Records
---
Amino acid sequence: MPTLQEFNDNLIQQTPAMPIVLSEPVPLADLPTPALIIDLDVFDRNLLQMQEYLEGHGMGLRCHTKMHKCPIIARKQLDAGALGVCAAKVSEAEVMQVNGVSRILITSPVVTEDKIARVVKLASTNPDLQIVVDDASAAGQLNEAARKADVVVGVLIDLDPGMGRTGIETGLPALTLGKYIGDECQHLRFDGLQMYAGNCMHIEGYEQRRDKYLHIMEKGQVTRSLFEDAGIVVPVFSGGGTGTYNIEPGLGLLTDLQAGSYLFMDIEYRDIGGSKSELFDDFEPSLFVLVTAISKPQQRLITVDGGFKSFASDKMAPQFRDVEGVIFHWGGDEHGIVQLNNPSVELKLGDKLPMLTPHCDPTVNLHDYYYPVRNGLVEEIWPITGRGRSQ
Amino acid sequence: MPTLQEFNDNLIQQTPAMPIVLSEPVPLADLPTPALIIDLDVFDRNLLQMQEYLEGHGMGLRCHTKMHKCPIIARKQLDAGALGVCAAKVSEAEVMQVNGVSRILITSPVVTEDKIARVVKLASTNPDLQIVVDDASAAGQLNEAARKADVVVGVLIDLDPGMGRTGIETGLPALTLGKYIGDECQHLRFDGLQMYAGNCMHIEGYEQRRDKYLHIMEKGQVTRSLFEDAGIVVPVFSGGGTGTYNIEPGLGLLTDLQAGSYLFMDIEYRDIGGSKSELFDDFEPSLFVLVTAISKPQQRLITVDGGFKSFASDKMAPQFRDVEGVIFHWGGDEHGIVQLNNPSVELKLGDKLPMLTPHCDPTVNLHDYYYPVRNGLVEEIWPITGRGRSQ
């Protein structure tokens, strides 16, 4: 009989994390659907393209693992040159660290005893671990726990970009917290600032997005100057994402970009528009859910086997990659009802078809495995080890 | 190195399914959040109440495991008197059968070779296994696979209630399929009909719901009569759900109810209204997501650690169980931003609070474990073994 802590530790340590190599390659059409598939050729291009773009503009890539939840993919990003990864939550960081990823920034603050203890435990074997703080009292608790464990934890002060999600107010409140950490928290190492303008990422239209982003980040710039004027070095200023990857270098404020979605892309990002075209197609979609047509109850309808349990439903519906002239309607948890207006391809029972995903992060978080595909064949299966680790 | 089939088999057989008994009970406030919790007292009441109500009205309960995904809960329902369970998909049925549940009806049709093989394999050791069919060609394929394996598979003909999701058209098309199965499919056992009026379950207002349900089910009644007039016995007529549980007995058409949500309840069902009160409160909510307040970036806002990855987002937002005068706004994948209009309780950083779930089925499907609570203590943890098994 485990304690709760032993149960949690086992959960993180025992979840499969290595590729499962199949004894023989499997054609796409033999996969049990709904199946989350990755087009490896596109994936590889996206991986390199973002890395090269940022390097060419003097920025680092601190890729966000909340999107893919997969140590295998995190290691590929690090191997390609990323300076580290982000984890949204403590348990996601635990999954990454247990599986060989050390340069981790936890991008949400922790305030309770149990989570603080878990952060300190991670830091006790990983000097590269960093976490954001946005509250003096919570920073004090973290410092005290670190002191007791004789550990130093790297922290970034999280700045609220005005979206009211996490982060302390920019300007003096942030500086006051910075001084408190420097003066009172000997077991916290001030590594810099984080300002993630999540309220900008999906603004439609490149110019509108850029204008709002520049406006919002002005307060970040002022805050950094306040720190520097007070003699506090700011080695890291982390933030931004896929939607601002080509805006940020012009501003020159951040040291590294917290991008995630660029690797898979999704309908939501595609539709925000690019700097040169109506669609944001700087990166191509590499992630799809393969579904099967399983019922044809009415003449102009055909039903596929994916619904709310296979696709994120916080935004739009999924779309077929290779079929036009049809509309996908949610058919509940398990199904999609496809309205056959003027289909570009005849859809028949048993057809297996890839669909573009609406919002990639919560779509990934519904699935346990990736089926990476090259030349129509799946050679190995990648566990989504961090799936469900939202704690 | 496994084959794809060995990989699938391992996945179903090796996923934990037994309660994990903790070495010492854990207070609710010590759980790592977001955590999916069950109020066991309410859960037990709901479990018995539906069973007794249906028994009192001469109906069976064929509870839907797509809602809870948990063999532990399925066994409790069977122990209480349910005549069997429903599974939405083949892999869900596999999870149930591997874990000791045999009376299973798969409520979605299968049409591809791989899924048909899996159904036949289940039936080869489980004569109680049933699956719906809605297409003659697919029925023929299933029959042929069953013949080769020298197995008989029980089938129900799925009738489309006009929602166009799955099911064959009521009336003559259904009868033609029934005759085809009786005449040509010696390895299929015709067990009856299914007509799940999913298009009725969430109609607001009891009278409106009842009227639409009765109208829709007329075609089911006509279809059953057609079968009987043709000399085909219809032992089972399965359908209905939580939203029509107290309408169906007055109609007397179905032999059993495919209810799921009654056990947990959710905001979506609560808001449809009951026969005697404005809210549908015949069953009380027993399922909650425990979240923690982790950031307070602005005066009138506080942020909790649950977003799209902890709550279903296909319908409304979650609501606090014990706090009024606040509004939950989605804060993305990982967070909820709580607007403090006129809070009935002061909310502070570190507070852990239970939230009512928006739509229970896809909420459950985000989590790996239930934390059942009685008297404020968690004594064991229940794996959600079927989570992610949507294949």
Note: The CA atoms of residues 244 and 312 of chain B lie 23 Å apart.
---
Amino acid sequence: MSARVSDPAADGETGAGPFERLLALVEDDLARVTGLIRERMSSEHASRIPEISAHLIEAGGKRLRPILTLAASRLCGYQGSDHIKLATTVEFIHTATLLHDDVVDESGKRRGRATANILWDNKSSVLVGDYLFARAFQLMVETGSLEVLRILSDASAVIAEGEVLQLTTAHDLSTDLARYDQVIRGKTAALFAAATEVGGVISDAEPQKVAALRTYGDGLGMAFQLADDLLDYGGSTAALGKNTGDDFREGKVTLPIILAHARGDQAARDFWTRTIARGKQEPGDLDQALAYLAETDALADARKAARGHADRALAALAQFPEGETRTALEDIAEFVVARAV
Amino acid sequence: MSARVSDPAADGETGAGPFERLLALVEDDLARVTGLIRERMSSEHASRIPEISAHLIEAGGKRLRPILTLAASRLCGYQGSDHIKLATTVEFIHTATLLHDDVVDESGKRRGRATANILWDNKSSVLVGDYLFARAFQLMVETGSLEVLRILSDASAVIAEGEVLQLTTAHDLSTDLARYDQVIRGKTAALFAAATEVGGVISDAEPQKVAALRTYGDGLGMAFQLADDLLDYGGSTAALGKNTGDDFREGKVTLPIILAHARGDQAARDFWTRTIARGKQEPGDLDQALAYLAETDALADARKAARGHADRALAALAQFPEGETRTALEDIAEFVVARAV
């Protein structure tokens, strides 16, 4: 499976993989999205805004989220041009959350480049994020769809709520599965689900198809984030743009840790308490953590959880006609899980 | 005029002043707004959100912005209940900008209390602000008015743009009047204008009345911020909740400084370059600054500018029928300028 180990939403090798096949279907639309992004992130008065947002938007992210909006509207046979505005909206909201996340995580790297808050400062990251968020809502207003505004303002609330919740789960070994689900839904799945759902909404698709697109996005996003959390205990730096063990060193309580802690003996629980809850780590601890994760089947069961979400995403697509768009969306769901194997 | 020196939007003495008379007209509605604020700032999953937002929302701000929305809809004879949602929206957007401003300014005090980012941390301030912003858009969606969404997403973009612009004007003595106007419009007038305009929009007021309400809010907001900038060179700590000379010490380039710098002789210009542009200040510099501001008529002319914006606000009200609401709104415009005399 090594040929598939690559992150569809971050820098990495290219090739005729499933992401590239999906991209090829919406390539012309995506070029229009790129043009609209450049046009709308500009500011008549504050030249610092496009400097900072361009840094992030042009940094080589693969634009998975706007591509999902374009593909969903294609799956519904949409003929208008509002999907361009909505895909741009989705990318602006994503970029705004990255900018705000850079501030909050004090992370030094994002997509392999220095983050905005290192190159500029916290102030600019917060305010440029706010600007992109406002521009996103302006674009939605232009589509004239209150339903789209409802879906994406709901998603924005879930995203912010999940991020706040994540602050309180770090180092907290009492984090349960429901809370972890809420965190990763806010972190990833809420925007994936909104991105695909609005593609159906502007296409005037039947309600059950709109619901299916939402389920697909949610399942794909949950699987994607579970895989991301898994890769932190096994992926290579090249594949993810971050180092194995980063989450461990930061004391993040992800599904593998929750499972290994719950299933461990007293020695294991003492180990997790010291390294994660108290954050006291020594050389060799990451290897010990990997050993505990393997012997408690924590990694295997986290993989099964990701597989379950991907299966939910695949089942939701079944009511759409067969064809290249549906196949490409199915392949992406498979790919997201496969990369974490 | 000393009895009038008080800030209508911040802590301070109360009494039967113009603010209290306006408040009395919408008191019942404001109680409903307070109830809705409490209901909507709660979070099912993240208890930290209401902790932080309540800290700011309950801190005793006088809620001038939501009161303006309530008064504007009252002036138009509005009979529905969407004005409660919109007033709550306006307060949420204001609170979100305060939370983000706390992060960016690294200020230690807001409304006389420690700011959220001291009591909690930068992370929480950013994310809780994002949450309130998302909740604000959800409330607008509930009103079903795309026009309201357009007005407040436009205002949000102007606010963020103005804040970014402000970052680049600090210590920059080449800041001109147009740029200063853009900064204070983003800082204050954009949300005032949107707050009054949406009151007219939900009332289905005629277009010229909606435009007049927008002009009133803009004029009031510009006058308010000009007065605020003036008070920093003459107000008392009790009246403003901040100390005379704070802007000077932070190197903020406000209208009084722009005028005094442009009109000063070589000695004066060297003084401003050292104290504002280079930020090198010594004991006695504030007194010297006040002397330069007085002898170049900078303070007097900044007061005239505030007066001009207030007059614009008053003129806009002329097309509404005379009555207690119009009178109260007129008195507030007078009051905002009078406090800076």
Note: The longest helix of chain B spans residues 177-202.
